[in-house]
Amino acid sequence: MTDIPPSSSLPPPMSIAAVERDCGISKDTLRIWERRYGFPTPLRDANDERLYPADQVARLRLLRRLIGAGHRPGKVVARPEAELLALLRELDAAPMAGGPVGGDGRAADAAQVLDALIAHDAERLRDSLAGLLLREGLRAFAAQIGPGLTQVVGAAWARGELEIHQEHLFTDQFTSVLRAAIGAATAAGGLREGPRVLLTTLPEEPHGLGLLMAEAIFVLEGCRCVSLGVQTPVRDVALAARAHRADVLALSFSAAVSAGQARAGLADLRAVAPADVEIWAGGACPGLREPPGVRRLRDLPGISAEVARWRTSAALRDGA
């Protein structure tokens, strides 16, 4: 570790808490990478607290984007920045994941969203998202278009084309549009024959978009959903499961959470949650392996098959 250098024209180094907020990489993960891979290499202030120079923060943004796309930390954290940029260009060259039919349509939709963000035009951004929802329907918007747009916005942020406040604007407007659509679908749903699903994230996971997109699919599958939002302590998740008589606990883990953290949290939850409540875990967390008693959701469309399986099992139990 090196001491903080004299003042310069570069942006000031960021604290570990600021890097966690900016890059979406937890403090624990930053420390683990530092120890295991030799990056990042933070400076130290007079109180021996970690400070991260601007170039390291930029590289951490690239890493978050690549890991979110499926690359394992052990394969990318220590690689030269030129190789990371090459990997990012490969991702950017691929079609928007699961977007509207037709490559030109996907590119046009993504460009429309990015243009609104770059122009700081919240109203135009919301109109673009609402138009996509109306054109494609709630299921495609949640399971395909949403993840695709999130990927595009994340890539632009990693390249330095968007600031964190613009990414937050996208998250806020996407959440607003999707939450309104979920409310309308819930009101129009009629008789609910699916499981009672309690949705949340554990304390290590601050990101809620994946959880919200999953909720939309659950609602369309006839599930009765209650969302606790993000970062709920394990004990409180178990208490809420009893209070709401949940059949399923659905948890989301993004690339900001390490596989070890996810597994430990799920194991703790399984130990205290009611035995008859199923736990389903999904998200972009790389290398996520479910402990015993937890079911892994591979992707958002996979929720439908899992709900169908639950219905079959419930019918067999009721008929026994």
Structure overview:
The chain has 320 residues and is an alpha/beta fold. Helix content is 57%, strand content 10%. The chain has helices spanning 16-23, 27-37, 54-68, 73-76, 81-93, 103-118, 122-136, 138-158, 164-187, 209-220, 234-243, 259-272, 302-319, and strands at residues 2-3, 14-15, 43-44, 50-52, 196-200, 224-227, 248-252, 278-282, 294-297. The strands form 2 sheets. It has a 5-stranded parallel beta sheet with strand order 6-5-7-8-9, with helices on both faces. A 4-stranded mixed beta sheet has the order 1-3-4-2. It is globular.
Q: Structural class, from secondary structure content?
A: alpha/beta
Largest sheet entry: 5 strands, parallel
The count of helical stretches stands at: 13
The ordered string of helix (H) and strand (E) elements is EEHHEEHHHHHHHEHEHEHEEH
Q: For the CA atoms, what is the radius of gyration?
A: 21 Å
Which regions are unreliable across 5 or more consecutive residues at pLDDT < 50? 95-103
Distance between the termini: 64 Å
The number of distinct β-strands equals 9
Features:
single chain; alpha/beta; 5-stranded parallel β-sheet; 4-stranded mixed β-sheet; 13 helices
Topology:
Layout lengths: L1 E2 L10 E2 H8 L3 H11 L5 E2 L5 E3 L1 H15 L4 H4 L4 H13 L9 H16 L3 H15 L1 H21 L5 H24 L8 E5 L8 H12 L3 E4 L6 H10 L4 E5 L6 H14 L5 E5 L11 E4 L4 H18 L1
Parallel strand pairs: 1-3, 5-6, 5-7, 7-8, 8-9
Antiparallel strand pairs: 2-4, 3-4
